[in-house]
Design brief:
alpha/beta, Purple Acid Phosphatase, chain A, domain 2, 5-stranded mixed beta sheet, 10 strands, 21% strand, globular, Ap4A_hydrolase, Metallo-depent_PP-like, hydrolase, EC 3.1.3.16
Length: 214
């Protein structure tokens, strides 16, 4: 069996992320890991999280897919336009720059700027925040993929696939509702770091969740 693991919002929580890698490695010897975005801000070690993700898995058996979250978007906007800086700092950017001992490293900004907004396989769609089902998948706006808030009880057809996202934290997450799974369980707010496990050959939602206490 082949598996895809979708890891929820990390927000600078490096140690839970390291433990999550150990748990995933125990679960399977190979697979795909999709990081759903929001690697930075609010938590203690945003720099360490990006360092780890940029270095990759170090194994040909594992494929890592890193998606952009709205906090990476805020950071990039703040460094491109001073008018955006205060807003970012007030939403966790201060802690991010503290982890760098000053400004965010240029190569980290470049890495963040090149992150994809969506990843899809035969049975699933992975984005940071959500999608608008009334629009074709190829016409989704970056603003929605990064910033949309999906009601807790909402689901749709999603073009015959299962949608997996983060962005909207809740004590009830990770949670599957119909054709949708939210894996943001608020690690940086004291909840666990969560990961949804999908069996690649099976359509539908996760077969299991892995959780690491933040």
């Amino acid at each position: 069996m082949n598996f895809t693991f979708a890891v929820g919002d990390i927000h600078g929580c490096l140690e839970p992320l390291r433990e999550m890698f150990d748990r995933i490695g125990t679960y399977a010897r190979a697979g795909t890991v999709v990081f759903i975005g929001d690697y930075i801000d609010r938590g203690p070690d945003s720099k360490g999280v990006i360092d780890l993700l940029m270095n990759g898995s170090g194994s040909e058996s594992w494929r890592w897919v890193c998606l952009k979250g709205n906090h990476e978007d805020m950071m990039l906007r703040a460094y491109a336009n001073d008018d955006e800086r205060t807003w970012w700092l007030e939403n966790g950017g201060f802690e991010t720059e503290l982890s760098y001992g000053g400004k965010v490293a240029a190569n980290h900004l470049q890495w963040a700027s090149q992150l994809s907004l969506m990843y899809a396989d035969s049975h699933r769609i992975f984005v940071h925040a959500g999608v608008v089902p009334d629009l074709p998948l190829e016409m989704q706006a970056p603003q929605d993929l990064l910033w949309l808030r999906v009601p807790d009880d909402y689901s749709a057809d999603y073009w015959g696939k299962h949608l997996c996202h983060g962005h909207t934290p809740s004590d009830a997450n990770p949670l599957t509702v119909g054709n949708r799974t939210n894996v943001d369980s608020g690690c940086v707010f004291g909840g666990p770091l969560s990961c949804a496990v999908f069996e690649d050959s099976l359509a539908g939602g996760p077969v299991e969740f892995i959780q690491v206490q933040g």
